[in-house]
C-alpha cells in the first residue's frame, strides 16, 4: 500500500526554503564560478618525443674526453695562485691550470668502492678534472653525536671516493660547513634558544661565538688530519685537495637577520665603540656596515690561521655568494675568489624546498645575460676566480643557453674554475640518472650534454680572454653606505666586452696600482657616484664615473673598441671579436678557430666563419666543435650538438607556461622538436678523405648515418631532434 504524505502549508514551505537559502546560494555561486584550472601534464605529442637518456659515456665516442686528463691528481704538487691571478702547480711554474667539474651533494658523495670507481670513470670521460664534494657533512656526522664526531663508515666511503677521483686525475674542492646538525649540548653552548640551529644561524654565530668556532674547528681537524687509508695521506697534506671554503655562502649581512644573532652583533658594536647605538643594525649606517665586514675579516683570519696550523696545503676562500661592493674588502684577502649564480633558481611559494616549485621561464640572452654577467665585477683583480655553483635550472625552457654562455664568458673573463651545481643530489641518480630535481645534470639530457661541452671548451681554452681589462674602484665611502649596494649594470655590462673586476681604494690609488702591475692589463678605472665623489678636477685621466655616459666615454677614449656596444646597449661584441650578443633577438654567437657556438632563436638564421644555420624552427643552442684539437677548417673529427628542451613525461605543471611544477613525472624524457639546416665550409680535400656524419645517442655512440649534400667547397647537413628514425641531440662528423 502506498502512503499518502501531507502537502506542506505555504508557511512551512517558506520556512523550509529560508533554512535552505545559504546552501542554495552557495550552490548557485559554485555553478556560476569557472571550474578550477586543470593542471598541465606533460606528454608525448607532435612537438615532444621520447629520448633514451643515459649518464654513461661510450669509450671512444664523441663525449669521451678522458685523453685530456693528467692523472693522478696531485702529481705536480700543490696548487698555488700567481701574481697575475691564475692557478699553477708548484712543480709546473708558468703553466696555467684550469678546472671544470660538477658538484656532488648529500648522499651522492657516498658509494661502495666499485660505485665510486664507476662514477669517477664517467667524470673522466666527461672531461671533468675537478669535483666539489658539497653538503656531504650532513651525512658524515655520527647520528646522535656532536657535529665533530664523524661516522667511520661514511668517512671511509668519502675517502674511497676521494681516492677514486685522485687516481684518475680529478681534483677535489670542499667546504667545511654547509648542512651538518648540532647536538643539544652544542646548541646550548652557542648562547641561542633555537631548538634547531640551522645553517644560516650557525654561519652568523661563528664570527662572534667562541663555542661555535670550537665546534667548527673540531670538525675541521677531525676531517682534515685523519689519514685516508686509500691514499696514504691526510686530506690536509694531499695536493689533490686544491681548494677549501671554510663556510659555504657565509656572506655575513645575509646571515645575521635572526633576532638573537643580530642582538649579539649589536651588543658588540656598541661595546667595542664601533659606532653610536642608534646605528646598530641600520643597513644604511656606514659605521655598522664597516663593523660587520670587519667582523668577517677577523673571523676569516682566525679560520685561515687555524687551517694552516693543521698543515692544510689547499688554497682558501670565503664569502662565496652575493655581489655586493663591500665584499671587495673581504675578497682581496683570499687566496682565490669564489662566487655562485643561478638562472631561474626555483622559488618556493608554499614551503621551502618542497613542491610546488616556481620558475620565471625567462631567456637569459634577452636581458644582458645577468648570469653570468653579475659575477664579472665580483672578481678581485690579482686573485684567481672560480664559480663553484652555477646552473641554468630545469624546467626553464631556455636553459640550453647555458651550454654557450658559461664557457664563452668564462673564457672571455679568463676565469680559472667552474663547477656546475649539481651532478646529482643522491647516490641513486648519480649512478643511473633519474627524472626529478631542478639542478641535477644526471637527470637532464640538456644539462648533461651542455656541461660536457662546457668542460671541453673551457679546459681547452677555445675562447680567447679579453684583450683589455677595466677595474672598479671599491671606495669605502660608497661601499659601506648600504650593505646591499651592488655593482651598477653600466659597469657589469662592460664584462660582455672586456675583462672586469675590482680593487679597493679611491680612483687615483686604484689607477696607480693597476698601472704598476702590467700583468693585469688594466687600462681604465670606474667608480660609483656615491658619498664623497671626487671633484672633476681631481679625477685622474683614465678614471670614469659609473653613470649613463660611461659606455659613450669609454668608446670615445678608445678604451672600448668601436662598435663593441651600441647606443641602446642591446648589442655587445667582445674586444676579441669572438663573441656577439644581440639582446633584442635573444641571440648569441661565438666564433673561434676550433669552435662555433650559437644561441639561435626560432625562425632566425645565424652564421659564423665556417658554419651557417638556416631554417631553424625552435629556440636552440647549436654548437660545432673540433674534437681533435685542430682548427675547424682542418679538423678531421667534429661534434655537433643541437640542444632544445627536455621534460619528463608525466611532469605536472600548474599551466602550460610551466611556471609552477608539482611533480616531475616518471619518464621517459621527452625532447622538444627542433629542426635546422647547417652548412659547413669544410673543403673535403683538406687533409684527404670525404666527410661523413652520424647521429649519436646519449652516450656519444654512433647510431645511424646522416646524409650530407655537397655544395662546391661546403656541405649541408640537416639537424633535427625528432625524426622518424629516432630522437637525438648530437652528431659526429668525421673524414
Account of the 3D structure:
By secondary structure, this protein is an alpha/beta fold. The protein folds into three domains: 69-459, Alpha-Beta Barrel (TIM Barrel); 469-556, no CATH class; 576-734, Polysaccharide lyase family 8-like, C-terminal (Chondroitinase Ac, Chain A, domain 3), CATH 2.60.220. Helices cover 26% and strands 23% of the residues. A nine-stranded antiparallel sheet has the order 18-19-20-21-24-25-37-31-32, covered by helices on one side. An eight-stranded parallel sheet has the order 9-8-7-6-5-13-12-10. A five-stranded antiparallel sheet has the order 22-23-30-34-33, with no helix packed on it. Helix 2 links the parallel strand 5 and strand 6. Helix 2 runs parallel beside helix 4 (152-167). The longest helix has 24 residues, at 286-309. The chain is globular and about 80 Å long. The termini are far apart. The model is unreliable at 1-35 (pLDDT under 50).
In CATH, the topology of the largest domain is named TIM Barrel
Strand content: 15-25%
Report on the biggest sheet: 9 strands, antiparallel
Question: What is the name of the CATH class of the largest domain?
Answer: Alpha Beta
Compute the number of structural domains: 3
The total of beta strands comes to 37
What would CATH call the homologous superfamily of the largest domain?
A: Glycosidases
**Biggest sheet strand line-up:** 18-19-20-21-24-25-37-31-32
Radius of gyration equals 29 Å
Could you estimate the helical fraction of the residues in percent? 25-40%
- Uncertain runs are 1-35
Question: What would CATH call the architecture of the largest domain?
Answer: Alpha-Beta Barrel
Helix segment tally:
18
- How far apart, in Å, are the first and last alpha carbons? 97 Å
